[in-house]
Each structure stands twice: as structure tokens, then as C-alpha cells.
């Protein structure tokens, strides 16, 4: 049995890089995977429907279940169709992994409005759009009495949180926005049984990072390569699993090091000289000092609004979102 047996998981940007490794790993763990990727270049231009299809073929050849989606996350209706593809193909949707990104690197004085908008459209708006349509489905199922663990795993970047790089103002801004979106979405969607977390890779060798000095050098095939994007997949799988208790957390990953972020600060880490398994992470993550987003919000509001307890806070959130008090 795998840690994701029976889970239906939609992964955006799953044709290459981190998303591809997640799709292969999740399928090996028993998930039914919607492989979404329009097959564009790193700047978002072009398109190749065969990119997603190749990953699907690799999964099915290994005995797994997967279907391809070539819609763009920046397309509002395309994001809706991705969710519908999961429901039509596998009858349900348990997890969304928002991984799609493009980049157009230029200094702030030279970056065009179009370039800035396009990067945010894929990374930030795309994360919102896919999550929006999935969350609407989950809300409707919850209101109908269906109780199931649902999860969103967003993907940010060390470039937006810990290591902002010159010439990446749009990329950094969109990834920081994804991390902030994660916390708010966790507060809103918890009442529907949805957990929302974020994984923030740092120094992973993908098409987007090959221009960074030192990133193109691959290690020996038989050894653990801390820069290989496969190092991210077990962490994302742990967050996607039904036994994971976390919500509203941002976990930075660099090779075998997994750290928890408190805002833009690393607050504690785990390290292993090799790849993690989902079972190992489930046991060791308990050692990290997690911030509960509900407790933090209750503390922040207690002085101004007199809100002191989690139940009272949940009632306030439900009221803001038009849900009846429970």
C-alpha cells in the first residue's frame, strides 16, 4: 500500500521539473493523477500537448493511473476544466498541487508591464484560479454531507521568501504572494475539511534555475543529488496525504533539509543525508515548531475585537464567508 492510495490528485506544471517528479512519485504511492501542463517554454510562450502526455505514458507504463490536461492555469475557464477532468476521469478530487510557474528575468527598470503581468498570471493568479474551482467543489460536497480529507499543496520558492534574487522581481513577488495566499486559504477552507500548505523549494535544478551558477552540474547517478527536483516530491506527498495534520504551514526544502517558515524566517529544520520517505517525514515533522494560523489570528484579533477562542474565531470566519454557524 502507498501513502496516497485512492487519492485523486491534480498537479499543475507536471510535465517537467518538480511537477513531473511529484506526478511520478504520487502515482507510485497509489494516487490517480491529473497531469496538467500546456508544454510552454520557461517564459510561457509556445505549447506542446505531448509534454503532459509523456508523463501520463510513463505513469501508466509503470502500472499507475493518470490522465493529461493541457489547459493553462492562467485561463479562468481552463482552471475549471482541470477540476472537471479529475471528476470526469476518476470521480472525485482530493488534492490540488499548484506547481505551475514561468519566469521572465529582467531588472525592475527594464521589466515590461506585460512580462510582470504574465508571470503573476501563471504563478499567483493560476494558484488562486485552480484552488478556487477545487474549493467550490469541495464546499458543495461538504454542504451535501460528504466528509473527506482534502488538501491543497502550493509551491512557492526560496527566491520569493528567503533568497530574493536580482532580475527576478516578478517571480519573487508572485511566490511570496503564493505563501501569503496559503495562510489565508487555510483559515477559510478549514471549515470544509480542506488543509492548505505550501512547499518552498530552494536550489532545485529545473529549467527555471539552470542559468544560476552551479545549478547545471549533476551529481553521480547512483548518489543522492540534493539539487535534483525529486527531493521535493516526498515532502509534497506528505502534505497531500490523508494522515497529515498540518494546515497553514510553509515548508522550505533544500535537498534533504526541510525547514518550517514563520513568516520570512526559518524557525527550525530537519536534515537527512538522502531522500526522505513519507513515513519518515510523518514522524519527524512533529519535531518542528509549527505556528497554528488560527491561534495566531485569534491572538492578533483579541485586543481589537475581543476574540479569544478558536471556536469563536471559526464562527467569525464562517460569518464572513456566509456560512451558517455550527
From TrEMBL:
Q: Cite a single GO MF annotation.
A: oxidoreductase activity
Oxidoreductase as UniProt keyword: yes
Q: Where does the Ketoreductase domain lie?
A: 7-202
Print the keywords alphabetically: Oxidoreductase
Q: Which domain of life is it from?
A: Bacteria
Q: Which SMART domains match?
A: PKS_KR
Family annotation (InterPro entries): KR_dom, NAD(P)-bd_dom_sf, Peroxisomal_Beta-Oxidation, SDR_fam
Report the sequence similarity comment from the record: Belongs to the short-chain dehydrogenases/reductases (SDR) family.
Question: Would you tell me the protein name for this molecule?
Answer: NAD(P)-dependent dehydrogenase (Short-subunit alcohol dehydrogenase family)
Amino acid at each position: 500500500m502507498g501513502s496516497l492510495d485512492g487519492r485523486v490528485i491534480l498537479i499543475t506544471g507536471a510535465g517537467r521539473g518538480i511537477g513531473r517528479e511529484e506526478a511520478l512519485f504520487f502515482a507510485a504511492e497509489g494516487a490517480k493523477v491529473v497531469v496538467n501542463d500546456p508544454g510552454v517554454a520557461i517564459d510561457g510562450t509556445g505549447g506542446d500537448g505531448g509534454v503532459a502526455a509523456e508523463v501520463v505514458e510513463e505513469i501508466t507504463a509503470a502500472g499507475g493511473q493518470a490522465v493529461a490536461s493541457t489547459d493553462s492555469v492562467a485561463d479562468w475557464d481552463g482552471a475549471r476544466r482541470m477540476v472537471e477532468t479529475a471528476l470526469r476521469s476518476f470521480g472525485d478530487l482530493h488534492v490540488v498541487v499548484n506547481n505551475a510557474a514561468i519566469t521572465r528575468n529582467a531588472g525592475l527598470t527594464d521589466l515590461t508591464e506585460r512580462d510582470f503581468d504574465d508571470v503573476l498570471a501563471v504563478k499567483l493568479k493560476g494558484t488562486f484560479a485552480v484552488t478556487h474551482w477545487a474549493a467550490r467543489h469541495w464546499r458543495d460536497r461538504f454542504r451535501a454531507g460528504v466528509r473527506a480529507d482534502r488538501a491543497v499543496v502550493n509551491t512557492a520558492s526560496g527566491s520569493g521568501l528567503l533568497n530574493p534574487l536580482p532580475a527576478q522581481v516578478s517571480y519573487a513577488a508572485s511566490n511570496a504572494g503564493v505563501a501569503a495566499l496559503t495562510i489565508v486559504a487555510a483559515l477559510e477552507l478549514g471549515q470544509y475539511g480542506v488543509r492548505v500548505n505550501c512547499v518552498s523549494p530552494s536550489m532545485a535544478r529545473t529549467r527555471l534555475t539552470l542559468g544560476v551558477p552551479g545549478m547545471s552540474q549533476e551529481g553521480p547517478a547512483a548518489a543522492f543529488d540534493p539539487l535534483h527536483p525529486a527531493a521535493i516530491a516526498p515532502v509534497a506527498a506528505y502534505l497531500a496525504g490523508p494522515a497529515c495534520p498540518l494546515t497553514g504551514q510553509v515548508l522550505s526544502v533544500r535537498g534533504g533539509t526541510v525547514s518550517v517558515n514563520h513568516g520570512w524566517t526559518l524557525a527550525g529544520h530537519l536534515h537527512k543525508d538522502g531522500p526522505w520517505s513519507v513515513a519518515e517525514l510523518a514522524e519527524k515533522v512533529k519535531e518542528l515548531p509549527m505556528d497554528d494560523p488560527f491561534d495566531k489570528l485569534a491572538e492578533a484579533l483579541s485586543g481589537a475585537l475581543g476574540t479569544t477562542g478558536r471556536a469563536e474565531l471559526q464562527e467569525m470566519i464562517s460569518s464572513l464567508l456566509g456560512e451558517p454557524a455550527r
